[in-house]
Amino acid sequence: MARDKDADRSVRGKQGHQLGPEAKDPTRAVVIVPVLARQPRGDDESSRPRLSRSADARHDEAVGLASAIDLNPVHTAVVTVADPRPATLLGSGKVAEFADIVKERKAELVIVDHPLTPVQQRNLEKELNAKVLDRTGLILEIFGERARTKEGTLQVELAHLNYQKGRLVRSWTHLERQRGGAGFLGGPGETQIESDRRILQDKITKLKHELETVRRTRDLHRAKRKKVPFPVVAIVGYTNAGKSTLFNRLTGAGVLAEDMLFATLDPTLRRVRLPHGTPVILSDTVGFISDLPTHLVAAFRATLEEVVEADLVLHLRDISDPDTAAQAEDVERILGDLGVDAADTSRVIEVWNKIDLLDEGNRERLLAEGASGKSPPIAISAVTGEGLDTLKALIETRVSGELETLTVTLSPAQLGQVDWLYRNGDVVSRTDNEDGSVTLSLTATHSARQEIESRLHRKSGS
After folding, report:
1. CA of 296: how far to CAs of 93, 205, 300, 313, in Å?
2. Reported pTM
3. Which of 226, 370, 238 minimizes the C-alpha distance to 314?
4. Cα 146 from Cα 153, distance rounded (Å)
């Protein structure tokens, strides 16, 4: 199954990324989406098989990844692979077919939306006469362009170097690998490879040292936040689920939020005051994606520690996406790798975003299905604001306890606490007494009630 696109179609944004020569037009690319006939099971035989993602969804995601770095997909195709070839992944007939397409469309780059071994990548480049990037390499390129902070840049560079370590042989195939005769010394090719590996390893060691310094700094910041005990709420989800849009809606921040895969890479933290005055730290994290390269999971562990350390995790799902169940499973697997149990409903809240994009029938059906569970998800629209009051109320209940009703009387010496009570509770009624005292009836969270009692006790005892 192939999907041709107009060769002259331009994609949004600036010129192509560093993958192609500097030119005014975006780099012309052919996108191939191999679909294996036999779906792989999990990491062990006892685990259940992964949910099958539709070919259309995989195709659209691959094109979205290519467009995320301003490539021009001049031809895209979904290819069923019944028997993966060790040398090229695809069969010889398909390889020859794509070689003709690359030549006809004058493509400079071929994207294969599947992990490739170094041998497969080298053989495909030779047969197709174009640069080849697999899914891992493409995601690394996107992350490299998106990184803005020093930490993000270091993490991407480290991941890229680890990815390149096993592929150095591709650059030196023109040199002999072994010297002839009875000598035991390697030939010039082997010498060059070893030299390059040492250079790469030195760079990797240096980057790890720099990232360790960044990690220690992040730990210090986290320790400071714990001294002022603001709960941390992390937003996680599949890329393009709407995390940054929700973050902006809740905080008023100006984080980049576009309909683009990996629009945001570097984490952002903001303090938010919830409806009953509870302050929390909200964290926007990098989007997850299926088959996220292990190099990236390892390199971004320092950033993802914000998720591990969070008091509450919001798992945001694009409920309008036909593949939302498979996307949710991918996110849950990555959370599990980080040590976060997605099934722990006391710590993880499932949030269904983009309900405004559903028609009435699907909306009612999905909401009914969600309501039948033990811990119903919260349905919202980060764009329209629908459901956000319910979400904020639930967040506040989880981090500060259920709302309680109480009545307090402040003596004239305690009137300085009135403003704090108004900011940290809902004042239902107020009575100004003849002796100068004030009686307030209010609702507040359990933790706010404890703080109120502590403040009044300290004030009366002083």
Report:
1. 34, 16, 6, 21
2. 0.72
3. 238
4. 9
